[in-house]
Amino acid sequence: MRSSKPIQNLGRFLLGVLISIIAIIILLYKVDWSQVLLAFENFDWRIVPQFMIAYLVSAAARAMASRKLLENRPTVAQSFTSLAEGYLLNNLFPFRLGDLGRAYLLSRKSGISMIQVLSANVIERIIDLILAAGLLISTFPLIFEMAWIRPVAYITFAIMISALISLFLILRFRNAVHAFMEHRLSQSSYLSNLILPRLYSALDGLSALGNLRDLAIIQLWMLASWFFNILAFMVVLKNFFPSAHFYWAVFIVGVVSFAAAIPSAPAAIGVLEGAVVVALTFLGMPSGPALAYGVALHFLAIMMTTILGVFSLSRETESIWKIYERLISQREDMAKG
Predict the structure, then answer these.
(1) Rounded to an integer, what distance in angstroms lies between the CA atom of residue 50 and that of residue 130?
(2) What pTM was estimated for this model as a whole?
(3) 248-279: string of b/e by CB count within 10 Å (b at 16+)?
(4) Dihedral sign, CA of 312, 89, 320, 114?
(5) Phi, psi of 66 (to 5 degrees)
C-alpha cells in the first residue's frame, strides 16, 4: 500500500504535465505566430505599474477576507505573507501544494490549528466558485447565445449558494450539530475519537460564517479582491485590444477561474493561455493577439507572485525545500487520515 502512493502522486503530476503539453501544442499549431509577435511589438510597458497596483490591492483584499474568516486572529501581515507564499509555491510545485502551504505557514505563524485554516480556505474557494459562476452568467447576454452552457452556470451557481447557506445554518446551530454527531458516533469510540475532534476544530475554524455581519464583511472583501483582479486583467487587455469593453475582462476572469480547476503543470502553464484564447475567440477576437495577451498576463502574474512570494519566504526560518518536504508529508498524512 505504501508503494502505491508515490505512483499515484506521479500519475497525477504526469497527467497535469500532459494536459499542459497538449494545450501548448494546440496553441502552437492553431495560432498565427506572426500576429503574436506583432502584438508584442506594440506592447506598452508603462501599463506594468498599473497592473502591479491592481494585483497588489486584489491580493490584499483577499488576505483581509481570509483574516476575517479566521475571526481576525492572524495579523494582516501574517494573512498577506501566507497568501503570497502560497501563490509562489503553486508556481513552483505540483499538486497545488501552494494551497496546503498557505495553510501550513499561516498556522505556524498564528498558532491557529491547520484544520481551522484549511476549513477557512475551503470556504474561500466556495465563495470564489460562486463569484466565478456569477461573472459568467452576468456576461452571457452581452456575448452570445449558448443554450447548453447557461444551465451549467446556473446549476453551479445554485449548488454553491446552497452549500454556503447550508454551512451558515450548520454553524449557526453548531451546538445541535455537536449533539447529533456525538449521539450518532456514541457506539464507536474509535470513530468518535477520530472524527469528533476534527469536526469541532473545523466548525470552530468556520465560526465567522455563523454571523451575518461577519459573513457580509467577508463577501465585501472577496468582491473587492475580484474587482481589482478584473481591473488588472483589463489594464493588460486594453493594451492588446484598445476597443475592449470591461465585461470582456469579467468574462475572461470567469473562464480562467474555472480553467484553474483543470489539472496542469505548476503555474498552469499552457492551460491559462489556452483559456484566455478560448474566451477571446468567443468574443470574436483573432487568436494571435489573444495568445499574446494570455502570455503577457501570465508573465506579469508570475512576476508579481515571485516578487511577493520571495520577499515573504525570505522571512521564514525554513528553506523552501524544507517547506516542500513538510508539505508532501502533510499531504500524505491527510490522505491517510
Answers:
(1) 27
(2) 0.84
(3) bbbbbbbbbbbbbeebbbbbbbbbbbbbbbbb
(4) positive
(5) -60, -40
